[in-house]
Amino acid sequence: MAKVYVPWTSNRGPYPECRAALEPSDPVYVDVSSDDFAYWRMMKGVWEKGEPFIIVEHDVLVWPDTIALLDACPRQWCSQRVHSVDVGHGRAWVAALGCAHFRPEGEYPIREPVSWKELDMATEDYLSMERFQRKHIHRKLLMTYQPSVVEYVRLVRFLMGT
Prior knowledge:
Blueprint (H helix, E strand, L loop, with lengths): L2 E6 L7 H7 L5 E4 L6 H10 L5 E4 L3 E2 L4 H7 L4 E10 L4 E4 L4 E4 L16 H12 L5 E9 L2 H14 L2
Parallel strand pairs: 1-2, 1-3, 5-8
Antiparallel strand pairs: 3-7, 4-8, 5-6, 5-7
């Protein structure tokens, strides 16, 4: 099974609900809050091990079968759709580094340090334009952790007696 890495920052997570969902996959939590380039260094280090790996960002809630589905995918690079990315006045889904699986080949494609703010698009650009890899997108939608939604679900469960 591919190793699961969870980049997180000390001021935001990892959230208990996200941790609980990932627990069966025995993830490695990596604090990337030291500077804007820590996420890039983490990705470079994991890539250079040369083994398949899965990234799940600290605020992504996975389904019980998410990790197994990604791990079973034979593609070089794939990603789950993740909902709740702010795109101005609304929200949308993206398939970037929120929950992605890589089968690395060769050296890490992003040679110069890249800020965490640009790492998802830089990864996309380098793999698709320099390595000519096409990302496979899994259609099952994941959600980012939203405390207000979790509290609402808890209230509904309490009121329904479940």
